[in-house]
Amino acid sequence: MERGTTPVAGPSPFHGVPWHGLLRGLLTRRFGNTRFSSQRPRPVDLANFLIQLLNSVQYGLLLFMLAAGLTLIFGIMGVVNLAHGSFYMLGAYLAYALSAQLGSFTAAIVVGTGLSVVFGLALERLLFRHFYQREHLDQVLLTFGLIYIFEESRSLLWGDDVHGVPVPPLLTGSLPLTDTLSYPVYRLFMMAICVALAVGLYLLIGKTRLGMKIRAGAFNRDMTESLGINIKLIHALVFAIGVALATVAGMIAAPVSSVYPNMGASVLIMCFVVVTIGGIGSVRGALIAALLVGLVDTFGKVLLPQVSSMGVYMLMAAVLLWKPEGLFKS
Amino acid sequence: MTAHASSLEALPTGLKAALAVGLAALSLFPFVGSDFYQQMVVRMMILAIFAMSLDLLQGVTGLVSLGHAAYFGIAGYALAFFTPPGEPVSLWWTLPAAMGLAGAAALVIGFFVVRTRGIYFIMVTLAFAQMVFYLVFDNKALGGSDGLYINFRPDAGVFDLENKRVFYYFTLVCMLGVFVFLRRLLWSPFGRALAGIRVNEHRMRAVGYGSFGYKLAAFTLAGALAGLAGYLWGAQSGFVNPELMGFHQSAHVIMMVILGGMGNFAGAIVGAFAFEIMLDVFKDLPAIGGFETGKHWQLWMGLFIVAVICFAPRGLLGLAQRLGARPGAPDA
Description:
The complex is a heterodimer.
Chain A: H1 18-28, H2 46-77, H3 84-102, H4 105-126, H5 136-158, E1 174-176, E2 182-184, H6 185-207, H7 209-219, H8 221-226, H9 231-257, H10 263-278, H11 283-303, H12 308-322
Antiparallel strand pairs in A: 1-2
Helix pairs in contact in A: 2-6, 2-9, 2-10, 2-11, 3-4, 3-5, 3-9, 3-10, 4-9, 6-7, 6-9, 7-9, 10-11, 10-12, 11-12
Chain B: H1 3-7, H2 13-32, H3 35-61, H4 69-82, H5 91-113, H6 118-137, E1 148-149, H7 164-186, H8 189-199, H9 201-206, H10 211-237, E2 239-240, H11 247-260, H12 266-283, E3 287-288, E4 291-292, H13 297-311, H14 315-323
Antiparallel strand pairs in B: 1-2, 3-4
Helix pairs in contact in B: 3-7, 3-10, 3-11, 3-12, 4-5, 4-10, 5-10, 8-10, 11-12, 11-14, 12-13
């Protein structure tokens, strides 16, 4: 940029008084993007505490859906997938587009899940399959390139505007907690879906024949293959499950978070934090880490808004000092 | 060692000659290029310094940092803070201070991340860089999402950096200095130890090299050199914003190193130039009918990155070497 042609005249008001300005900023900082209506709770306010607790659990469960796919895809195929956040964004936009098209949120979720599985299978077959044995560096760049492609395709298909997705009429109500405070039913519905999927995932991996093959493939790929198990099919399925989990998370989050460009990016970073804390490849670790991150993030915003964006990373740093490979190394 | 041939650790004579031609072209460029292109080449040279600093981690030591832009940005912000609104500030203390800050941040973050490896390292470097990003982005005193202006280029005393041509040559000298320094480092005992860690860390530990210290030193040094690039960027553009330390910037610089070819620093320079030229080409694509192709540069960039990874994973220098052709000079 040419000096003198700077579009906005003048430096920022704090310019030139760095230390004083920094200090004042840190003391008076406020957060614009608190996700939840969070007035500072009075110290002994059980209902408010309960609401924050529910919020943190809901956020944690949503993160789990994303992190579970990420950790599975890494643990079983050894692929680091930066484009995982894009699947979340894709889900949200699918919920927006399909619910407008089909006129029903439920139908949108069903059709969207089907589409995401097909999408995951195609992506695995065309690209990811060839990268399982490649270096992490190549995988990082491949999936970074995919982020650009997905973002731009989203822009071409649906534009760059922010869209709201209506909460389905059945779930619009609120559950009263006290005379003045209540909790939206839709958020409870989200939690229920997440818990159901988490239990489903646990049963699938831990208790079924397919799950046994998945675990065997993660443990020793060559041996599993020589026992006559179609490991390529297993990998394709795991990848599609991961994509579908992220997409469903995006779809059910859409009515709460609304739908906007680049919504996958911040979620991706949080997923990385969750997977790092939980231990790569461990679904159980992802669940516990996601709930922890949800707690730290939500209560950090309420109790210590000055440093809340740091809290989660502090947690990660502490875990790394204590256990460099995560809480539950698989 | 087979690693030599593949990563061009020792530069072949043909390549050295090509680089010399490129250097000659760069040093003559201000006499032929217009102001606009001169500024563009300055940006490319700054990014080349940035890419070389990452190459020390990525190509030499085998550490893929997805958060390298944080140190680039920290030094840029340091300059913004050091520069008062009404007058320039001396280059001679702000440059070491900015690099020192970037290096100190790398030392602290490195202390946590260097103990991880492989995929963890990628994710943790990214997470810490995002932490720095949000710290700045959410903080009004640090300029928030709008960034900060730097009204004056640093004052060097003996030469005038406000002069475009002087700044051009100053950047060129910095780039050359970093290149020569890193090439010397590569063949020093320290550089050999880093390369050994890349090839086989367990074996290095077994022969008595404490890999933690070496990796942390490399991480810190790379952070400080990225700080040099960030400082120059701030001085050149007169403006810093959180995007400088964002995830995309980190990924772009990885791409530059890959595009040129890793582990020899010459590739990083070639890659930085090639990447910026591609970016410029994509952004300037003509409209086809009502469809503005240039506006959707991210799509072409994404396809380009995917194509490079699929078809030329060892970069341009590797590709040139494989085809047996003389590698092109980084033309300006």
